[in-house]
Structures are given as structure tokens and as C-alpha cells.
Design brief:
Blueprint: E1 3-6, H1 13-22, E2 25-28, H2 30-47, H3 73-84, E3 88-91, H4 94-108, H5 117-128, E4 132-133, E5 136-138, H6 147-157, E6 162-164, E7 170-172, H7 173-179, H8 191-196, H9 200-230, H10 240-244, H11 249-262, H12 271-274, H13 282-285, H14 287-309, E8 317-320, E9 326-329, H15 337-365, H16 388-404, H17 426-458, H18 471-482, H19 495-506, H20 509-518
Helix pairs in contact: 1-4, 1-9, 3-6, 4-5, 4-9, 9-11, 9-14, 9-15, 9-17, 11-14, 14-15, 15-16, 15-17, 16-17, 17-18, 17-19, 18-20
Length: 522
């Protein structure tokens, strides 16, 4: 099994996915343990002084005006975790919680939070044991960090609340810790606050979304190419020199993908034969421009995520001076605006990619625009309805995605007696992006289902039966059929076919099938 070592230099986006989805083991590096110990000495020195220090010897938020004596500080740290673990609603997915835990560990390992080394190793032990805290859907405003979600995680470290074991069952956290030989953490000064004051939830979901959206952009290039092929479209618009005169890198990458998928096709360029037209419709001709803009948006979001990964998001932070001392400073680095903005931006790009894919699907089903294909790709139109309602389902998904594209980050709601009077809503932006990408997977699956059926039907039409699809299109169609995505024929119960198409897109089988012919795609 892959092991991810967390050190002072941070981690990578791929490591987040390995831990969140692949259950990779986690170790705290020697450099991180040394940095943790050094920062803890700063906290211990400040705790021994009479002057109040936020997070060490004061209350929190609007209650920071109260100085807390040494006899109450352990209780103070326990209480912030207990009181902030106030989430409601359904449980958040296991991969999101694991990503959140891992990213909080990454910040602890930076040496800027002031927690003891044993707190960081306890978090790594929790991940390695496969214990997943029960985090609820609602509770984060994306400022002062993802407070409630992180608090539910800290509660599990303390041996309180509920968590999911490796077997997927929800049980008392104390039982799970004991079963795996783990001791509950006894929090000391600053540690409760340090465990719950970061952007780790929204950042973890952004990291997972980057992986998912990247795969879907490639899948959408493939289905767009298959649709162009089934519509006898002009592949000349994909020429590299045409895209070089508008040098957006994502556009060039998408055009190159489509060009490689269509290589060797005998169907492209025959639009003048079946129904003369000078140019293809925008949804076909502009596919690289739209998907390419999504790619460039993804690259921008990745840059923001990598910067956030290089950050130590906490308040206050410990700034060691390199001579065994240091200081603790309040700051606003926990504000989720940078992450929230790109989460919203990705939802917009995903919605537009879905929108153009749905328009291509509709074109394949409309006999007035499909250039010789039967209405709704039906076996016996009138008796059979074909894929008419599959497009309805796709349209419903796209419509919801347009609503999900409304940005969460433009909203703010004051909290904590107006101390926290502007918040990012980044957690909400991340949650709706996950739903949007689930929908996009299904939208691409419907286009795949429609385009492969249309390519099959081309082989039965007098005008095109001698014209073979390209090798990549044939490979994708064959792999889809082998995966349970049935081909043309009389009407049948469609949901199993659509579910199989969704799985074919979601697990990367679509891309892998095309790449058996094209080689690695962008």
C-alpha cells in the first residue's frame, strides 16, 4: 500500500486523493515532528506568562475578552470541540472526511499551529485505522475555517461522539478507538482551536473535484467527437493551425483530443451528402472552445489549490524565530474566499460543459437536424420512442446544474455576535460542486449512449453503410457494449443501460477505451 509522509513542506493534490479514496497509509515525517516540538515550546512559554494570548489563555470568537486561568485551560479546549461539533443533516461522504482529516494533519505538521507532536501522530493513527468521524452536511460558513466539520473530527480524537469503522458501521468513537488500540487525546492549550480552524473541508473537496473534472473533460472531448462523427460533421474545424490563432491552451488540448479520436473515420466530412450545410452547429463546431475554457478554469483552480496546500491555515499561528523562541499572532488566513471562488467557478464551467453536451444529444435525436438518422434513434419510430426520454433526463440534470452554478461565495451571513461578520460560504460552494460533477457524469453518459447508438445506426443506413467510424469510435462502442451499455433495438427499460453508461464514464472506462487507439489523451 502507498504511504504518504507528511512533512513541513506540505503535500500534493495526488496525495490527498490517495489518502481520501485509496486509503493510503499516513506517516508524520521526522522534520514535522521536530517542527511540532519547537512550536509547542513557544506555546508552553506563553501559557506560563500572565498576559492573555488568544487561543491559549482566552475564550474564542466574541468571547475572546475573557482571560482563562491555567486550571480551566484543558476544559476550555475540550469545550470548544464539544460546543462546535454542532453539525446537522446527513453524513458527509467518507472520502471527504478522510481528505479533511489529512489536510488538517498537513497544517499541524507545518509547525505553525503549536500542537504537541502526539496530537499529529494520533490523527495519522486515526486515518490508518480506517476510523472516519461522523461529519454532518451543515455547520460550516467557510470562515474561521470549516468549524463544525473539523470539530466533529476532533471530537473523535477525544473519544467522543460517533464515527464509522472500517466495516462502514456507525459506532461510538470511544469503542472504535479502544478496538484499534488508540488512546483518546487529552487536549492542552491551543490544541482544540488548532484542530478546527482551517479550510480543510473545502480544500479537500476541491482536490477531489480537480481529479473528477479533469477526467470528465477528457470524457466530454471523446463524446463530442463521437457526436460529430455520427452527424457526419466536419473535422477540419479541429485543425491545429486553426486553434493556434486563438492560443488558449485548453482549447488546443480539447481540439487535439477530438482530432485523435476521429482519426481514420470515414464518416466525417460527409455533411454535404445527406443534407447539405456549410458549417456545423455551434454545439458541435465550438466543442473545443467550451471544453477548453473548462480546462483553463481547471488549471486556475489547481493553482489556487496548490497555493492553499502550501499554506498553514490557523488562527492564531505560531511564528518560530529559529532561536528556540517565537511569537503567536492573530490573522485572517482562515477566510475561505480564494478556495470558494474557484469552487464556484468550476461549477459554472461544469454547467456550461453539460449544457453544450445536451444540445449535441438533442441534435442526434431530432430527425430535422440529425442528417438522416431515425427520429429519436428509434427502431420503429412511432411504435418505439427510442431515446426521447433519455434526453429529458439529461435536460433535467443540466437544468439543475445551472441552478448549482449560482455562486455561493457572493453570500455572507454574520455570526458570533458580529465578530465574524463576513464569511466565505466555501463549504457550501464545495458541496454543490460535488453534486454538479455527479450530474455532469450522467450528462456525458447520456451523450455517450446516444452517440454510440447513432454510430451503429449509420451502418444500417443506405447512404452511410459503407462508411466506417474511426478506430477509436469503434473501440469505445465495443467497450461500452461489453460493459452493459446496450445498442440499438426496439424499446426497452432504459435505466439499466443509462446506469451502465454512467459507470462506464465514472470509473474512467470511456477514456481508457479511447486511449487503446489514440494513446494518452489530455
Amino acid at each position: 500500500m502507498h504511504t504518504v509522509v507528511v512533512g513541513t513542506s506540505g503535500t500534493s493534490l495526488d496525495d490527498i486523493t490517495r489518502v481520501a479514496r485509496g486509503d493510503a497509509r499516513v506517516e508524520v515525517g521526522a522534520d514535522a515532528l521536530a517542527a511540532l516540538a519547537a512550536a509547542r515550546r513557544v506555546i508552553d512559554d506563553l501559557a506560563a506568562k500572565p498576559e492573555p494570548v488568544y487561543g491559549v489563555s482566552t475564550g474564542f470568537g466574541a468571547l475572546a475578552v475573557r482571560h482563562i486561568g491555567p486550571d480551566l485551560r484543558a476544559r476550555l479546549q475540550r469545550n470548544i470541540v464539544r460546543s462546535h461539533a454542532a453539525g446537522m443533516g446527513p453524513r458527509v461522504e467518507r472520502e471527504v472526511v478522510r481528505g479533511l482529516l489529512f489536510l488538517r494533519l498537513k497544517t499541524l505538521a507545518s509547525g505553525h499551529t503549536g500542537v504537541r507532536p502526539e496530537v499529529a501522530t494520533a490523527m495519522a493513527d486515526l486515518l490508518n485505522a480506517g476510523i472516519t468521524p461522523a461529519v454532518r452536511e451543515y455547520g460550516s460558513l467557510g470562515c474561521s475555517g470549516d468549524l463544525a466539520p473539523l470539530s466533529h473530527c476532533a471530537l473523535t480524537l477525544m473519544g467522543e461522539g460517533e464515527a464509522e469503522g472500517p466495516d462502514g458501521r456507525l459506532r461510538p468513537a470511544a469503542e472504535l478507538l479502544a478496538e484499534h488500540g488508540l488512546a483518546p487525546v487529552e487536549l492542552r492549550e491551543k490544541e482544540g482551536l488548532a484542530l478546527l480552524n482551517g479550510t480543510d473541508g473545502m480544500l479537500g473537496m476541491l482536490a477531489l473535484a480537480l481529479a473528477d473534472f479533469g477526467r470528465l473533460l477528457t470524457a466530454a472531448d471523446i463524446t463530442a467527437a463521437l457526436t460529430l462523427e455520427a452527424l457526419l460533421g466536419a473535422d477540419a474545424v479541429l485543425a491545429a493551425d486553426l486553434h493556434a490563432v486563438r492560443p488558449h491552451p485548453g482549447q488546443a488540448a480539447s481540439a487535439d483530443n477530438m482530432r485523435r479520436v476521429l482519426a481514420g473515420s470515414a464518416l466525417t466530412g460527409h455533411h454535404q451528402d445527406a443534407a447539405p450545410r456549410v458549417q456545423d452547429a455551434y454545439s458541435v463546431r465550438c466543442a473545443p472552445q467550451v471544453a477548453g475554457a473548462g480546462r483553463d478554469t481547471l488549471d486556475h483552480a489547481r493553482t489556487v489549490a496548490e497555493r492553499e496546500l502550501a499554506s498553514a491555515v490557523d488562527n492564531p499561528v505560531v511564528l518560530p524565530d529559529g532561536r528556540g523562541g517565537g511569537r503567536v499572532e492573530s490573522n485572517g488566513n482562515f477566510h475561505g474566499a480564494p478556495v470558494a471562488y474557484v469552487l464556484d467557478f468550476l461549477a459554472i464551467a461544469a454547467a456550461d460543459l453539460a449544457s453544450i453536451a445536451e444540445r449535441r444529444t438533442d441534435r442526434l435525436l431530432d430527425r430535422h437536424r440529425s442528417h438522416g438518422l431515425p427520429p429519436f434513434l428509434a427502431d420503429d419510430p412511432g411504435v418505439d420512442s427510442g431515446l426521447m426520454i433519455a434526453q429529458y433526463t439529461q435536460a433535467a440534470l443540466v437544468s439543475e446544474m445551472k441552478r448549482l452554478a449560482a455562486p455561493a461565495s457572493v453570500d455572507s451571513i454574520p455570526s458570533s455576535a458580529m465578530q465574524e461578520d463576513h464569511v466565505s460560504m466555501g463549504w457550501s460552494a464545495a458541496r454543490k460542486l460535488r453534486t454538479a460533477l455527479d450530474n455532469l457524469t450522467r450528462v456525458v453518459a447520456v451523450e455517450l449512449y446516444t452517440a454510440t447508438r447513432a454510430l451503429e445506426l449509420r451502418g444500417a443506413l443506405p447512404a452511410t453503410r459503407e462508411l466506417a467510424p474511426g478506430p477509436a469510435g469503434q473501440a469505445v462502442t465495443a467497450a461500452a457494449r461489453a460493459a452493459g451499455v446496450e445498442g440499438a433495438g426496439p424499446d426497452r427499460y432504459l435505466t439499466p443501460d443509462l446506469d451502465a453508461a454512467e459507470a462506464f464514464v465514472r470509473d474512467g472506462s470511456l477514456v481508457r477505451a479511447a486511449e487503446t487507439v489514440t494513446g494518452p489523451l489530455h
